[in-house]
Amino acid sequence: MASAAEQLAANMNFGAFGKATELKKRIWFTLGALIVYRLGTYIPLPGIDPGVIADVFDQQAGGILGMFNMFAGGALGRMTIFALNIMPYISASIIMQLMTAVVPSLETLKKEGESGRKKINQYTRYLTVVITAAQGYGLAIGLEGMSGAGGSAVIDPGWFFRFTTVITLVGGTIFLMWLGEQITARGVGNGISLIIFAGIVAELPGALAGTLELGRTGAISAALIVALLIGAVAVIFFVVFVERAQRRIIIQYPKRQQGNKMTAGESSHLPLKLNTAGVIPPIFASSMLLMPITVLQLSAGQGPEWLNTVSAYLGRGQPLYLLIYISMIVFFAFFYTAVVFNPSDTADNLKKYGGFIPGIRPGKNTAEYIDKVLTRLTVVGAAYLAIVCILPEILISRFAVPFYFGGTSLLIVVTVTMDTVAQVQSHLLAHQYEGLIKKSKLRGRRR
Fold first, then answer.
1. Exposure pattern of 311-335 as b/e (b: 16+ CB <10 Å)?
2. Containing H/E element for 215?
3. What is the Rg, in whole angstroms, of the alpha carbon atoms belonging to the chain?
4. In this structure, what DSSP letter does residue 267 have?
5. Nearest 5°: phi and psi at 256?
6. Quick check: 86 and 195 in contact, CB under 8 A?
7. Are 432 and 17 in contact (CB under 8 A)?
8. Alpha carbon of 98 to those of 59, 104, 156: distances in Å?
């Protein structure tokens, strides 16, 4: 079966793609949904002055606001209806997953299968509304305190502006949440990841062009630009290498008696990825960290002195910010790995079908061995994620590169691209299998 799958994958070409009508529909739906998302990032919030907003964000393009603006696909810098992007939904998902592991009733719901999963998803949507409303109110307060050369950022500040801002931002985030679910169900790949991916990719050409312009005018050296581009390419190769890395645990199946025949024992392997959590930890860490810092910086100079001090310590490249960011990445790497992979369930399934790891007793010992290997892999994977996300942060903060071209954005772009390509290949493979099955049925009828 493996050789047949490899042969089919090797024979994939544009002709096979042209015949896969279902796959083409999914790709067109995905592209259409992402275009709708991009159009929404240009619809401004009611009651703001776009010129003043643009001036403020131009002054902080290389800071935390510039970083969050890239994740939002430029929607925050233009202060549009999608300014909060999909981050509140991600924060709600994190909280619900944490509560599922702590609250017994939610843990019971999780074990109920599809019905329980639907209820948890519904609770996640409700929590998304609450988080978005809170963040939207904080953003409205921050906007009222912003001012530039053209005057105040808000034309008519007050409760009506705050109410309309909260309602608009909640509607925008809920729409993106629904759009991501539609892409997952009717498109190609994970809809939430693709929305974040589209926002980052849409901002990269403009950011790169701006940096080249600064190099032309002499604001930054050409050598630094070349070094950054080489570093970005090196990070891409490093991410691809690590994301494909696996630890394969050998699984042995004993001889079996089938009627009068004795089948020989089979040998297989259990693949464990070096980075089981994928791109989720940086996305989770960013969503939990960026919005509070953004609200702090928008209201800098408007609140008490301690608020300004906290905002300064949490600035881009500051030790406290880096420490919190690394801690969150490491935590979510272990947490999400524990959510998606259960060593005890894997050991029970192996025991059920007669499989065992050579030299390890089935059952509890097998679960402990898998957990030990997985923990070591997760340590390396978490260190890899922290290095990729933090090293560019340090370099950019020291050399004052005026846009966010760090490891987190490259990690998301590369990983989501690899996942999407894998989804397309699996659809093509399924289509070719269906074609072979139909041909075999036709031949059987002719005979």
1. beebbbbeeebbebbbebbbebbbb
2. helix 191-217
3. 25
4. E
5. -130, 145
6. yes
7. no
8. 37, 12, 40
Residue corresponding to tokens 């679910």: 181
Q: Using 50, 70 and 90 to split pLDDT, how confident is the model at 400?
A: low
Reduced to 3 states, what is the DSSP secondary structure of residue 399?
helix
**Amino acid 39: pLDDT:** 92
Q: What is the mean pLDDT of residues 309-313?
A: 68
Would 447 be classed as within a structural domain? no
Query: What sign results for the dihedral spanned by CA atoms 208, 278, 199, 51?
Result: negative
Closest CA to 232 of 193, 190, 200, 275: 200
400 in a structural domain:
yes
Q: Specify the pLDDT at position 292.
A: 67
Element of type H or E holding 235? helix 222-244
Rounded CA gap, 365 and 342, in Å?
14
Give the number of residues written for the chain.
447
The answer to whether residues 329 and 385 touch, using CB atoms and an 8 Å cutoff, is yes
Read off the tokens for 260: 């009068």
Identify the CATH number of the domain in which residue 255 sits.
1.10.3370.10
pLDDT category at 174 given cuts 50, 70, 90 is very high
Question: Which residue in 39, 132, 84, 106 sits closest to 339, CA to CA?
Answer: 106
- Asked whether residue 14 is assigned to any structural domain, the reply reads yes
Domain limits at 59?
Answer: 2-442
pLDDT tens, residue by residue, 141-154: 878 877 767 677 78
| pLDDT confidence of residue 14 | 47
Mean pLDDT of 120-130: 91
Indicate the SS3 state at residue 348. Answer: helix
Which segments within 60-214 are labelled E, that is strand?
147-148, 151-152
Answer whether residue 349 is part of any domain. Answer: yes
Give the number of domains in the chain. 1
Do 270 and 346 contact (CB within 8 A), yes or no?
yes
Share of the chain above pLDDT 90, in %: 13
**What's at 225, amino acid-wise?**
I
